[in-house]
Amino acid sequence: MSLRxxxxxxxxxxxxxxxxxxKGFQHTFGYLWNASFQQIYxxxxxxxxxxxxxxxxxxxxxxxxxxxxxxxxxGWQAMQTWLAEPVPVPKLNDAFMVKIAAVHLQNPDVLSxxxxxxxAHYRDKLAYLSKKRAVFESxxxxxxxxxxxxxxxLKRGISLVETWLEWSDEVAKMxxxxxW
Length: 180
Hints:
Helix content is 66%, strand content 8%. With 180 residues, the protein is mainly α. The chain folds into 2 domains: 3-84, Arc Repressor Mutant, subunit A (Orthogonal Bundle), CATH 1.10.10.10; 95-177. The chain has a 3-stranded antiparallel β-sheet.
């Protein structure tokens, strides 16, 4: 899986400019797929070159012209092909987990400080995701139905962050007590 598939799925909802995709991406897929602005623009260009997207240029004076990308039939078929394929089990590469595994080889105070920084990050992330969940939950059922897939992935993201925070509280207690 790559950013290409994410962009095809995103554009299945309708045409959008690169700028609007970047901004919208942050609200729909940003919490489950990391991509920089440059990566998004690069892959949009490649998808267009490969004939999977149409691109219309609109005057946007005094700014640069606005390119609006839409999924064409070939792009729709490529997306459908990918959606029909099973995905591999996700791999976890987490450097912090390696540090936890090596707790006995390092200064626990240094590890505790890093853990506290990560906990603050994940608490902020949980607050952000919880606000997004509240927005979804306030939608009329007919509107929520259209975004049900995004809502379900948001709920999974919240669950993962909550589980991580619960686990990290246990680790913090063990580090403070030096019990391992």
